[in-house]
Write a structure and sequence with these properties.
571 residues, mainly alpha, 8 strands, Serine Threonine Protein Phosphatase 5, Tetratricopeptide repeat, two-stranded antiparallel ribbon
Length: 571
Amino acid sequence: MNILKLIPKYTLVLGLTMMWSCNDRLDDVNVNPNGVDLSKANPNLLMPPVMTNAAMSYLRLGYEDVGGVAQHIQHDGWYSGVNSYDWGTQGNQEWTQWYNMLRNNQLMLDRATTIDSKFHMGVGLTMKSFIFGTITDLWGDAPYTAALSGAKSDGTITPVFDSQEVIYKGIIEDLKQASALFATKDNSAYLPNYDVYYAGDASKWQKFANSLLLRYYMRVSAKLPDLAKAGIESIYSSGVYIKTPAEDAVMNYLGTTSDYSWPGAVAWDAEQSGFRRKKPAQTLVSKLLENKDPRLTVWIAPVHCQWVADETLTTPLDEFIRKNGVIQTGVKSLTDVQFQTEIKAGAKFTRHYNPKLYTGTGTDAINTGIYVGIPAGMRQPDFYNRNPTTGQVVQNQHVSQLADVYRGSSGGLLKARLMSASETSFILAEAAQKGWSAGSAKEHYEAGVKNSLTTWGVDDKYGAYIAEKNVAFNNTLAQIIDQKWIASWTGATEAWFDFRRTGLPALKPGNASPENVLPLRFNYGDNTLNFNSTNADAAVNKLEVTPHSGLRGKNSPWSKPWIVQGTGKPW
């Protein structure tokens, strides 16, 4: 099905434009899109809906379902999509959402071409590449060359699916063209306050486009190694790519409504369930603790109530919590708000157990840490660490929540990040480690670590951190990808694709997963399969069935798309 033909022609999400362009030009912007002559539309007005929707959707992936695959986060309620990859609706909802962005972007690109605005043409090509890149990364083959061309002469709206190879090569060519357009520094048609990433700075946009080139060259490196090597060496030689966190492609949230706020912001959730249900994954917590990583306390909060081993206890477990060592008879737990208030006032809450009498093992073992995550893919994650308040109503006092900053709506660290200096540094470190002409693997690796620490406000801890046994550079791909995986916090989509490409880090799913290996892709949705069956079926048939595809058939999250076929990765 051609998703773009089923979306109303004039659906330009200008509401979001208004929010990001709230200034003395508000009267010029706040117009009914149904009254706009699209043949005369100003490309400035079309930029914000494309850019904001792309940024928020990308963040939502890495902070939700894909964050679960990458084992950055887990949920202890409503957890099937995050913890066990139950993605039945992604093929419809996410697919439609990403193709929706392309309609607005194509209109911007068409108008920019008509008025010969090099800046807007560059933006349009860059965003087109980012959006199509995300689509093919997530699903595999997809409508590309025919996706934006409209209905055929006979009225059918069934575009062919292009191969991933065609799409990735097209993305690379579009990004090269975008970079050349930005290199002219001509942004004369740009009006202030419409570019929510770089405020009309063509030089920064060129660095973003070239950094995306680095991403996609490395993405295809196992399948098209000569293309990847030459491309990465060329970008490195140019020196034009994101090098510092100040150049990251990010979008700030407004915080004015739930839709324009950080996902799970408590200001828009009276029960705070969106924030409360999201927990750090133990996989990430263990790695941060092992490395004495200063980002731990930025991202993750201490448990409200810590378990304490106590061999003097006459029962296996305390029934009630203790406040400053004193049993609170009748009190098994407090609410999140009560805990926060008491702890800020200086109270320390514990619960004791006798390790000689309590014999729980495996997922029933007690974790006495101050920072505790939920193991990946648990069948009943709300029970973990002997939680006395299972279910959806109260938080698990014995498992960490995310840091308080993630309760917020906007500002500070709450940014949707599309591309970062740490990612480009780790890409170049990997390229150099392969022996390509891309500088020093050690210098790029250390820059990647430092850039990430700078992003999260702990760069003053860099010297001690880089000297840690497992962090000091050892010239292995495993270490480079390991640190890149950590640095992709809230942007775990890249971590998933790196895992798919390299098998690193060596992540394993939990018991709740239908398969004993991690999935590789989203499945095509029923809408696509039903309304564009011939072309969708052809795409499905090009997927490689694996021993883990199971009864789901070829259109399975465990079937291999072209990008990993024949590579032996990740499993």
